[in-house]
Amino acid sequence: MNKDVEVTIGREKYTTTVRYGDLELTADEPEELGGQNKGLAPNQLLLSALGTCKAITMKMYADRKEWPLERIHLRLQSEVQQSDRQQTTYIRCHISLEGDLDMDQKKRIQLIGEKCPIQKILDNPIVVESNLIDTE
Questions:
Q1: What are the pLDDT digits (tens) for 50-60?
Q2: What is the pTM for the complete model shown?
């Protein structure tokens, strides 16, 4: 049941449609970058993927343990630092856990969140291969 994510952009600057099966969302750039601000920008989508993955992973773990986790709130931000030799991206994730949890439970939930599939991808080398398909 592996479906591909499909991304389409037409003449409208820079509104992009993202589809996965029957699901769809809109991505865009903010107006100050020439977009129309109709959706999250690509960097925001990346942070959203990481944040949702961490939140779901932490929630699943707490549910399995039957811990009284009432709410998870994550705030993510990224910063790129350039040097002569490389570019380093720092992603900061501020986590708030609500519920009748002791500090050991909160630390364990945070640690489990660090093992979410998206963070594993981002923590390791990534190779992106692109190929041009002639449609005419």
A1: 999 999 999 99
A2: 0.91
